[in-house]
Design goal:
The protein is an alpha/beta fold. It is built from 10 helices and 12 strands.
Amino acid sequence: MTKSVVVAAPRGYCAGVDRAVVTVEKALDLYGPPVYVRKQIVHNRHVVENLEARGAIFVEELEEVPEGATVVFSAHGVAPSVHAEAADRRLKTIDATCPLVTKVHNEAKRYAREGSQILLIGHAGHEEVEGTMGEAPDRTILVEHPDDVEHVEVEDPSRIVWLSQTTLSVDETWETVSRLRTKFPLLTSPPSDDICYATQNRQSAVKQIAKDADLVIVVGSRNSSNSVRLVEVALEAGATASHRVDNAGEVDLAWLAGVEKIGVTSGASVPDELVQGVLDLLVEQGYPAAVEERLTEENLTFALPPELRKDLKRAR
């Protein structure tokens, strides 16, 4: 049996996640602990635990933050009502929302202002969806799956636009858009695709390694939308089996029985050390060192939030 392991690239941290994590680290260095963070800064258990160890305190809602304290908003974005609550409680806020999520928020505000109804493709309960819907709650209808399209009713079929969560399955989103367009021929599209470059790149990369794989292991946390999508995309692309794990400790060795070709990748909020842990485990189980297959280079970076940059500059 000829065993092989291929690791996909791009994988792991995207520019928005890197910016959000560095924002919390810099805030802890500058202001000292505790720094409060509303929700998980990014959807990765390992990252959150590391920041907690440094003095970050993660809360579900702002009422848990002492008045006047410093709070960071997560990469997934928040509704305007959250900003208003923070102002009422005199909290010092640092907004680490990914700029690509902010783009979707701005689109929602603009289309609502123009009188359009927004069909937001995304998952109910996801923080990003809650934040985007909060920009125009009376003008937004959530569409979760392609099959939901038949139940969508709008006020004026000539004044509707679709937007999407940034971390969805590219293929499923286009299937939903296609069905919406069939039902509503005058549907408007956003100026550019809302699914972020990193999500698209990671899905394309996993397709490349999954087509011949007996098993694809995706490193990522359970609540990471883009990681869960990678498992689905791998299976759709032809992988015999695919599983998500938080780290090497969650790999079930029974998955390796009779398996020759393994593909490994990770979601956009995963530090590469967790991927390396899985690759090391596979070597221990008799597999060769992984070969990287790179689909494309990613060079995008985002500046830190302006309110943090200002304080960093003052502290010099």
